[in-house]
Amino acid sequence: MELIVHADAGLLAKAAAARLITALVDAQAQRGEASLVLTGGGIGIALLRALRTSPALDAVNWSKVDVWWGDERFVPADSPDRNSHQAREALLDHVPVDEKRVFEAGALAAAGGSQHDAGGYAEPEQAAADYAAALAARAPAGAAVPAFDVLLLGIGPEGHVASIFPHSPAAAAAEPVVAIRESPKPPPNRISFTFPTIQAARQVWVIAAGEEKADAVATAVAGADAWGLPAAGAHGLERTLWLVDRAAASRAGQGG
Ligand SMILES: O=C(O)[C@H](O)[C@@H](O)[C@H](O)[C@H](O)COP(=O)(O)O
Asked: In Gene Ontology terms, what is a biological process of this protein (predicted)?
């Protein structure tokens, strides 16, 4: 685990964007393609916006990047609350991604159901099962999920990552993707990767800005139990980075 502290949220977003470009370029140099898992949340979307204006943006072959989401809000496809909607607006609509490689989790079918809802789901459990099937279809032989190159995670003030909330069944789940109901953070219904899926990534980067994240950051980097503090279970096969601003880092190293 490496803790990397930037002066403020703006610089954090820019530095993480630069780092992400390098990681994707490296992955494509080695394997010809890359896979990236996005997060929602303020700083996660700020990172994508910073990426979009980065001078080295075109160093990445965007048509050879698989894009996934570590969690998604189970709301209608056109809802601005969807993490994927926000990511498209911030970045994906502005780079030449291959839509066949952009894997959104299923959306809630709009009330009444109509021809506009093609592909919408009535229940988050169905959307979660289909997302798991999409992961399996892109996984190497014998694995349930791909070996993502970089998996990004935001963190909540109480230590949630993706939509794995403290002391919730998702924190102990063995299946790759779960449906969340009654999430403490709105909206209540969500779809989330679980720890086995997160931990299959080569690199996991937790990104956090703001003083309200300082306790969770301090406790997680000191090594906590992931059941009570899901962020402590965020680690990658090769590298785990905590990319934070000074405010979020302000209590780290003070005994958690
Ligand atoms: O769907 C979501 O709400 C996010 O994916 C969530 O996990 C987020 O990343 C954290 O809650 C941090 O969010 P902020 O950066 O907005 O505090």
From this structure: pentose-phosphate shunt
Q: pLDDT, tens digit, for every residue of 164-217? A: 999 999 999 999 999 999 999 999 999 999 999 999 999 999 999 999 999 999
In ligand 1, the atom with minimum distance to the C-alpha of 69 is: 5
CB 145 within 8 A of CB 176: yes
For the chain, the domains span 2-108+119-245
- Closest residue by Cα to residue 205 from 88, 39, 83: 39
Pocket test for ligand 1, best of 185, 193, 243 (most atoms within 8 A of CB): 185
> Backbone phi, then psi, for 220, in 5-degree steps?
-70, -45
Does the pTM surpass 0.90? The reply is yes
| CA of residue 43 to ligand 1 center, whole Å | 8
Question: Over the Cα atoms of the chain, what is R_g?
Answer: 17
Asked: is 2-108+119-245 a CATH 3.40.50.1360 domain? The reply is: yes
CA dihedral 25, 58, 161, 215 (to 10 degrees): 90
Quote the CA–CA distance of 187 and 175 in Å, as a whole number.
Answer: 22
Segment 247-256, tens digit of pLDDT: 999 999 875 4
- φ, ψ of residue 184 to 5 degrees: the values are -65, -25
